[in-house]
Design brief:
By secondary structure, the protein is α/β, with parallel strands linked by helices. The protein is about 45% helix and about 15% strand. It is built from twelve helices and ten strands. An eight-stranded mixed sheet has the order 4-3-5-10-6-9-7-8, sandwiched between helices. The protein has a two-stranded antiparallel sheet with strand order 1-2. Helix 3 (about 40-45) crosses helix 4, helix 3 packs across helix 6 (about 90-120) and helix 4 crosses helix 5. The chain starts with a helix and ends in a 27-residue tail after the last helix.
Amino acid sequence: MIQCGAGLSLMRKRHQLCCNGGMSIAQAKRRPLSLDGLRAFEAVARRLSFSAAADELFLTQSAISRQIKALETELGAALFTRGTRKVEITAAGSALRQAVLPALDGLDRAVRQIRVSKGRRQVNLTTFASFVTLWLMPRLGGFQQQHPDIDIRMTATDTRVDMDDAELDLALRYDLQDDLPEGAELMFGELLTPVASPWLMQQAASGQLAPLACPADLAGHALLEDDNHRPSTASVSWRRWLRHVGQPTLEPRRWVYLNYTHQQVQGALAGQGVALARMALVHDQLARGELVEPFGAAGRLAAPAAYWLLPLPGARLRPELRAFIAWVQGEAAITRGALGEAPAAGSTTATVTHATQATDAPPAPQ
């Protein structure tokens, strides 16, 4: 016969085993966490919104709520406090998020690498929009003729990308040398020059527009100016160029502010004004006579930033990536020659020297 106390103890033990799926409390605490709701948890933790997480993951809000509730039940702790208009993450939720983020990032990187390795040969690069429009795309046909079996995927953005992005192989960056990571290779430097369309120059020469023979004549014309807050903007501005030529207070007929370099070039091609162009990006238009330098070589001014080739540290140097890097290096050498630059030294120790280079003491980037 089982005594009363022993029977009660046995009943409690059976209840504990039942509630824990046949495991003891100690075993339940060591049980691995189910992964089903972690993606939903990460999205809610990042957005602090169940509805925003649902939209991101293409699920219903109730489905997200069920996944979070199941995760909280399994953990035995609340991950979020839900208010009427606000969701806040708890201490337990913060601790879980710190562990989940790197795990999901690693999983996503592995999946991307597998997909890339099983698909067509592809090179993934990031650069900025004006560089794609004015330098890369006009030349890319040559690479495609040499390597018709290699796909090129370009991401154009004016913000710096994550250097650990497993989807990217290469960055073509415009930057100051001191701000670059190890391994960056110089492509070519920056040389600024005023440019205008042949039509505008003809109109100025015939008297239909204000003259355009010396820097002071710019007062009679529209100046197309870069309008953004990047640190490098000050060094490529009309104000810096005007100070260099002794016209620090000159005011043009009007300013036309544009976000991107390729917009300024397009404006100049259309005869809308005079742009302070980056010679590396408009040399082809100058050579074809589509743009003209009103002040010739005397109007050129070097800028401190330059263009760099940067293989990303996580990229595997596959044959297709080697081929694309070699092609970019060859095209960059042609551009350097057109600018009158010395050959690149091939690393972040390289410096830019123009054969006919006007310079001043540029202000520090702001």
